[in-house]
Amino acid sequence: QVQLLESGGGLVQAGGSLRLSCTASGRTFSNYRMGWARQAPGKEREFVANISRGGLSTYYADSVKGRFTISRDNAKNTVYLQMDSLKPEDTAVYYCAANVGGTLASYWGKGTLVTVSS
Q1: 44-78, pLDDT tens digit by residue?
Q2: How many angstroms separate the CA atoms of 24 and 74, rounded?
Q3: Which of 16, 44, 58, 97 has the greatest number of C-beta atoms within 10 Å?
Q4: d(CA 2, CA 23)
Q5: Could you tell me which of 96, 84, 109 has the C-alpha nearest to residue 33?
Q6: Which backbone phi and psi does 31 adopt, to 5 degrees?
């Protein structure tokens, strides 16, 4: 089992920045591809970014490419999502995920709310 705890959400104005963190406990963090997904009200959950076990390979959804940066620190069992140039449409609950494969993941955090005001 892997337990994931997100932090860093909050309220920010459009154009601003936030950094989300997700700390993992349980099984070896560095064994897993990690990701961030989000779910806006009335919409399906979508992956926005993921990162390979060693951090050398990343993926971004088109909607966030060039604005969001995913990174990880395996020594701290933590994955980050730096979100810049935020837009109101980025408003959602953001979830951390472990053992990501395509649109699936084995483990999920409980989520952190990001609200972007216009």
Answers
A1: 999 999 999 999 999 999 999 999 999 999 999 99
A2: 10
A3: 97
A4: 10
A5: 96
A6: -80, -15
